Amino acid sequence: MAPVALMASQKGYIVSGSDNGIYPPMSTLIADSNILFYDTFNIENLQKKPDLVVVGNAVSRGNIELEYVLNNKIPYISQAEFVYREFIHNKNSIVITGTHGKTTTTSLTAWVFENAGKHPGYLIGGSCFEFSVPGRIGKPETTEFIIEGDEYDTVYYDKRSKFFHYRPDILVINNLEYDHADIFSSLDEIKTSFKRLVNMVPANGIIFANGDDDNVLEITEKAFCKIVKFGEAGHNELRLENFEERAEGFHAEYLVFNKRISLQSKLGGKHNALNSLVAMAVALHRNIPEPQILEALSSFRGVKRRLEMIYNSPELVVYDDFAHHPTAIAGILKTLRERHSQNRLIAVIDLRSNTMVRNVFQEQLASALQLADVVILNEIYRKEKYKENEILNIDKLVKTLQSKGVNAIEGKNPDQILIELKNLQQVNDTIVLCSNGSFGGLSAKVLQQFSAESGMP
User: Fold this and answer.
1) Residue 245: Cβ within 10 Å count
2) What was the pLDDT predicted at 410?
3) Confidence of residue 102 (pLDDT cuts 50, 70, 90)
4) What does the DSSP assignment read for 415-442?
């Protein structure tokens, strides 16, 4: 909601808003803006009778402000509908979707267009180092709007995925697997949602689809528009042919419509080599010259909390990451293994997301975490919300990891984790903090602790 509020303010609207839980980097952006923010829901916040209320998908019936809006017939709209109506409707809609990589790919694509002088509108679900704000309306003459297409539900009265409202002309599908266990009961339900999205792309539109992902191939097989496949397999028109993880970032060699292209990136991980490939493809489709594309991709510094290095000394490296799915966790651990091959790898995992706390991923999570030497698990967030027969078994997870030689430590809160890290830390450690929430401010506490110990400011 914070980026949308900022964009509404950019457009000249007087904006205020309420939320119970907002944390950096979004809380910082709001604090630095002219938006009036209330840190609790209260009908007093609505006494000026706004012309329109934009309702986020975290707000449900019973919310005191929502009930006031309904009872007093104040006009309201979902966030996704508002975004399309105000910012996308007269632009070429470029929608980046998939279970993983949406934020980084959206950021990469927006940066390529920005670097080429297109000044696009964009909406990113995170804070990119290349942009001062995660959402921008773009210049009046711009022809593109680039948006992260979230498959999560729209609003309390519309349980369809938000991406339906963005009406893509250019659609990217990075990958597809089971996620959002609180919204979707099965992978088939997610596939159905994506199939309907594919069916919305006009015949003169285009879909860039991960050709290595069987689920993506299935959902796109009946598309009415052109499909261009990307990946590593030989049948893809856009191929990652060679990949090397280096200390300064990855080096990749691509085959793009039978032309060889090389890229040295500041990012890490094969997943980001693929994210860069599809951003390149979208830009080429919109006639951005190859040299400008490569210049932008090679200069791109990343997204906050996406494998973000927050501390670096000769003895210790600490990363902060948004990973909250076993596949994403496995990807970052593999990347860090390759980047810091001589270091002990410590993974600190926040069991917070509706996916991570359910036992549907019990075995997959154990498999992913085996890539670490040490695993510290946070206690399950809001454990009381879940049925006993559906919740992740931490004790079982710890025992599984220990049987595989991983030093697994069970169920600590953030303050205890900080003590645990201090006691565990030794020379040549790599620590990664994985959470889709604030993690109790753990990243800032870790940074403060190790900076103080090293004498760094």
Assistant:
1) 18
2) 86
3) very high
4) HHHHHHHHHH--SSEEEEEE-SS-GGGH
Mean pLDDT across 277-306:
95
* CA-based max dimension of the chain: 63
Judged on CB neighbours under 10 Å (0-12, 13-18, 19+), 344 is: middle
Count of all residues that appear for the chain in the document: 457
Domains defined along the chain, listed by start: 2-74 (3.40.50.720), 86-299 (3.40.1190.10), 308-454 (3.90.190.20)
Cβ neighbors of 74 (< 8 A, separation 6 or more) are 46, 49, 50, 53, 68
Q: Could you tell me if 419 and 449 are in contact, meaning their C-beta atoms sit under 8 angstroms apart?
A: no
Prediction pTM value: 0.86
Alpha carbon distance 6, 27 (integer Å): 12
Tell which residue, 267, 9, 27, has the closest CA to residue 130: 267
Least confident of 42-46, 170-174, 182-186, 217-221: 182-186
The most confident of the ranges 170-184, 275-289, 392-406, 411-425 is 275-289
Burial of 202 (0-12, 13-18, 19+ CB in 10 A): exposed
Give the model confidence (pLDDT) of 8-17 as tens digits.
999 999 999 9
pLDDT given for residue 30 in this prediction: 85
Nearest to 267 by CA among 296, 292, 241: 296
**Residue 304 structure tokens:** 């906050």
Element (H, E) at 148: strand 144-148
Asked if 82 and 105 count as a contact pair (C-beta separation under 8 A), the reply is no
Q: Residue 244: beta bridge partners?
A: 251
CA dihedral 68, 70, 73, 78 (to 10 degrees): 110
Tens of pLDDT, residue by residue over 336-366, are 998 888 999 999 999 888 778 888 889 999 9
Within 10 angstroms of residue 322's Cβ, the number of other Cβ atoms is: 23
Name the DSSP class of 379: P
Q: Element (H or E) spanning 78, and its range? A: strand 76-78
Spatial separation of the C-alpha atoms in residues 291 and 266, rounded to whole Å: 17
The answer to whether the CB of 319 falls within 8 A of the CB of 310 is: yes
* Alpha helix segments (H runs only) across 58-145: 64-71, 79-83, 102-115
Beta bridge partners of 148: 96
Cα–Cα dist 137/84, whole Å: 11
